[in-house]
Specification:
Number of helices: 6
Distance between the termini: 68 Å
Number of strands: 0
Structural class: mainly alpha
Low-confidence stretches: 125-129
Strand content: under 5%
Shape: elongated
Radius of gyration: 24 Å
Length: about 150
């Protein structure tokens, strides 16, 4: 996981938790926190899978040591995943979550294209697949000279 439940919950205000939970209002603070934590774990898991999907061709994922920038965008995508469960109202405060999500996706696309470097080594091993096609063969067996007289 590239971020924690606690980090994501710090980004969400208390009144937004009720919106995220949906139609059911949970008055008990502990029960509401448990419910939102469960939803948050699923949102983080989805965000990490989305990040890995963008970066898998360039880097070995999941990262053993998460770069700070990936952690930041994992939180942004996780919060968006939570908020978008009930729909995003683009004229309201939810637009901020959508903007942060779009910025995260643009960043991940640029990293995947190699425009932005996140400061870790690229995938180890053969890089021919990432750079294009490469073929090797043995030397030529038949030529005009070797075929003379046949």
């Amino acid at each position: 996981m590239y971020c924690t439940v606690e980090e994501v919950l710090e980004m969400i205000k208390g009144d937004m938790m009720n919106v995220i939970i949906g139609d059911e209002y949970i008055e008990d603070e502990q029960e509401r926190t448990e419910k939102i934590a469960t939803l948050c774990e699923a949102a983080i898991s989805d965000a990490c899978a989305e990040i890995d999907g963008y970066l898998a061709k360039r880097y070995s994922v999941p990262f053993r040591k998460t770069p700070k920038v990936i952690s930041k965008f994992a939180k942004d995508i996780s919060v968006y995943n939570l908020v978008s469960r009930t729909g995003i109202d683009e004229s309201e405060r939810e637009k901020t979550f959508l903007n942060r999500y779009n910025a995260a996706i643009k960043f991940l696309l640029d990293v995947a294209k190699g425009i932005i470097d996140i400061g870790i080594d690229e995938k180890s091993g053969s890089s021919e697949a990432a750079n294009g096609f490469k073929m090797k063969s043995s030397g030529r067996v038949f030529s005009r000279d070797s075929m003379r007289g046949w």
